[in-house]
Amino acid sequence: MPKRILIPIDGSPQSAQAIEFALAEWPDAELTLLHVINPAEAASSPGAGVPSGAEQWFENAKADSETLLAEATPPGATVSTMTEVGRPAQAIVEVAEEAGFDHIVMGSHGRTGVSRIILGSVAEAVVRNATVPATVVR
Question: Which fold has domain 4-137?
Answer without folding.
Answer: Rossmann fold (3.40.50)
